[in-house]
Amino acid sequence: MGVPSLVQKQHADEHRIKAFVSFLFLCIVLLVAFSHVYFNQQLAQHSYFDSVRFLKENRSVHISDEHGGTQLKAWLGIPLPENSKSYKCRPRDLTNNETDAVCFEWIDQARLQVTVQETEHLRCYEIHWQSLSSSFAPLDCFDASESVWFGGGLTTEGMKWPLNKLNIPLSPFVTGQGNDVKWGSILKRRFFSSTGAAIVVDENVPLWLEFKDDKLCVESRSGYPYNTESLPVLNYSICTGPDAPTTIRLLADNGLWDGVRKDEMEVIRELLQDPVWRFDLISASGNLVESLRNFTNRILSVEWTSPGYLMLTRPWEAFVGDLEFDTSQFDDLEAAFEIIHRKGFKIAVGTSPYFSTFSQSYEEGLIESNRSFWLSQPPRDDGPLVPSLVSKDDDNSLVVLDPTYLPAAKWFSKKLSNLKKKYTVDAVVLDLGTTESLPKHFQLEVDTVDPSKLTTYFLKAVRSTLPTVLATSSAIEMPKLPTFVITPKAAPTWDGLQTTLPSVLTLSILGYPFIICPPVGGNVSPGESTASKELYIRWLEFNTFLPVIQYKILPFDYDDETMEIAEKLATLRKTLVMPIIRKIADESVLSAAPIIRPIWFLDSEDPECFSDETNDQFLIGDKILVAPILTPETFERDIYLPRGVWKDGMDGSLRKGGRWLNGYKVNLRQIPYFIRMPDGTRL
To answer: What mean pLDDT do residues 62-91 have?
Structure first.
C-alpha cells in the first residue's frame, strides 16, 4: 500500500472517531436535559395519598386503580394562574381540625383542603375549596374523554344516555323545565364513571355544572338562582371503587326502609302489581262524572285488566288551589267515588303548592298584616311581606306556599286531609313544579341555599297528616316511601318513546328505583293526535317490563289486533315480569338498588356493555334482558348478550352470552327479551 493510501485511511479513521464523539456528546446533552426536566417534574409532583399523584404546576390530579391504570384525571382550581405560588395552610385554617389533611393556600385567592375516608371497597377523597376573594369562584374539571359518564338527573334538552352525548354549558344545577335551566325536574348531585369513580357534590354548594368537550366541570358560584351572597365554597367527594356497579351500590341510600309501615309497603306493591289509570279532566268533555264512570267501566269490560289507582289530574277545582272539587263540573261526586271504589279502584288526585289569587285559599293564607303563607318578596324598610306572583301552566296569577313556615305547612296539610275525608280520596300526586316556576327573589322562613330543596319541604309538609303521597313530579332525593317519582310528560311521538329509557336508567342509578313513567302512547294534549297504532304497540311492549305501567289512552281505542297484543302482554307481565320485579323491589327498599339496570351492571369489564350500540337495552335486576324496538318500521335489530347463558323469551332456545345476535328478527307482536339462566347451565 502506497503512502497516499495510508494517509487517506488515517483521515477516514479520524472522521469516524470525531463523528462518534459528537454523537456521544449529543446523547449526553439530551440525557442531561431530560434528567433536568424529569427531576423538576418530580419535584412538582407529589403523592399525598395512595394511588393519587398531584402536579402542583397545573394542579392536575391522577387517581390510579388497583392495576395502576388511570381511574380519574382532574384539574383543580381552574381560575388560578398556572404556576401560581401556593403555601401550606396554617393549622387554625384547617376545617374540622383535620390534622391529617393536605392543605394549600393561594394568598388572597383560595384555600384547598383534601382528606381521605376509606371503607373496605370504597375510598373517598373529600375536596374542600374556600374562596378568599369575591373574584374567585372555585372550578374543578374532570376528564371524560376516555370513560363513559352517567348521572346528574333529567335534562331539558333531549334526554341522553350516557352524559357524554350532552353539550351543556356552565349553568346552575337546579330543577328546571327548559327555559333558562338545562336540567330537569328530578336531580341528584352524583356522577358516575365507567371506571368506578364518582363525584358527589355537597347539597349546600351553589352548584353550577358543565358537560362538554369531553369534560365534566363543577363550580361554586354565589347569587341567583341560589340564596347566598357569601364567598363561595365548593365541597365534594371523589369516590373510587373497584368498578362502576360496586361504587353505585356503596354510595346508595340504604335507609329507604326506615320508618316504612306495613300499609305503605302495600301501596308500593299495589302500584307495581296493577296499572295506573290516568284520567285527564282537561281532555274530558260533557258530564265529567259520567265520563269518569264510562272510563272505569271500559277498563273492567275485559278480563285481562285490573283496577288499580285512578289518577285524576287537574283542573278539578274552580280555581287552582281551592282544594275543593268544582261543584259546577262534578255532580254528586261523592256517590260516583263510592261506586268507583266498589269496582276495586283507588282514587288519587293531582295537586300542588301553587294557589290562584282568585281562590278562597289565597285569602285564607293572608293571615297577618306582616306575614302570610306565601313566598314573599324581601321586605323593604321593615315593611310588610308582599306575596310574589308567578306563572305556571298558562296561569299568570299564582302564589306559592312557603313550606318552611310551620303554620303554612300545617294549614296545607290539613286542607288536603279534609279533601281526603270528604271525598274518600286515597292518595295525592304532587306537581311541585321546578325552580323556574318560583319567584326570582323570595324570602323563606327557613333559609336554604338551593331553591330546588323546596320540593323536600313540600313533601314533608303534606306527609305530616297525609301519608299516602303516591308520586311527586320533582325531587332532589328519593322521597320517603311509598312515594314514587313521576317522570315528565312525553309527546306521543317516537322521540317521546325514545326519551323514556335514558330517563329510567339515569334515575335508577341515582337512587330512584321507584319510578312512574309516562302513559302508554305518551301524554296527549287537547287537540293533539294520538300515537299511531305501531307506536302505541311498541310503547306498550316496552312499558310491560317497567316497574309501573300507566295508561291514558286505552288499547280499546285502536283495534282488535291491539287488544290481542295488550292481553298477551298483560299475561306476560303477570306471569314472568311481576314476580321478578316484586322480588327486586323488596331488595330495593332495603338497599336502593336499581330495579331497571344498564346491562353493564352485569359485567362492567366488558366494553361492549358500555358501547353506544347497547344503550337501548336494559336489565330487570340481573334476571331479564330486554331489547325493545324504539324506532318506526323496525322488524330486526342487533342484540348483545352479556356473559352467561340466556333463554330466548320468544322461542325458548338457549343462547351463549358474550356475543352479538345480529339481525334478530321481530314482528309487531313481539319484543325481544332473554332470561338469564343459572351459572353452569349447559347449551
So the answer is: 88
Pairing mode of beta strands 515-516, 659-665: unpaired
Nearest residue to 451 via CA among 484, 502, 402: 402
3-state secondary structure (DSSP) of residue 663: strand
Say whether 452 sits in a helix, a strand or coil.
helix
Q: Which sequence spans correspond to the domains of the chain?
A: 3-46, 52-251, 262-352+405-436+451-584, 599-676
Q: Residue 15 — pLDDT band, cuts 50, 70, 90?
A: low
Measured from the Cβ of residue 390, the count of other Cβ atoms closer than 10 Å reads: 21
- SS3 category, 159: coil
Which residues lie closer than 8 Å to 305 by C-beta, 6 or more apart?
275, 299, 570
DSSP per-residue letters across 104-141: EEETTTEEEEEEEEE-SS-EEEEEEEEE-STT---EEE
Residues 534-543 have pLDDT tens digits of 999 999 999 9
Q: Which of 502, 540, 504, 548 is nearest to 522 (CA)?
A: 540
Give dist(CA 538, CA 547) in Å, integer. 17
Q: pLDDT tens-digit profile of 367-383?
A: 765 678 999 887 776 66
* CATH topology (fold) of 599-676: Immunoglobulin-like (2.60.40)
- The model's pTM is 0.89
Q: Where are the alpha helices (DSSP H) in 454-591?
A: 454-463, 494-498, 500-509, 533-543, 560-572, 578-591
Q: 324 pairs with which residues across the strands?
A: none
Distances (CA, A) of 279 to 127, 296, 336: 49, 10, 15
**Residue 278: phi, psi to the nearest 5?**
-95, 120
Query: What superfamily in CATH does domain 262-352+405-436+451-584 come from?
Result: Glycosidases (3.20.20.80)
Architecture of domain 52-251: Sandwich (2.60)
> Which residue in 660, 664, 615 sits closest to 642, CA to CA?
660
Q: Do domains 52-251 and 599-676 have the same CATH topology?
A: yes
Whole-number Å distance between alpha carbons of 114 and 346: 52
- How do 484-486 and 469-472 pair as beta strands? parallel
Between the two ends of the chain, the Cα-to-Cα distance in Å is 84
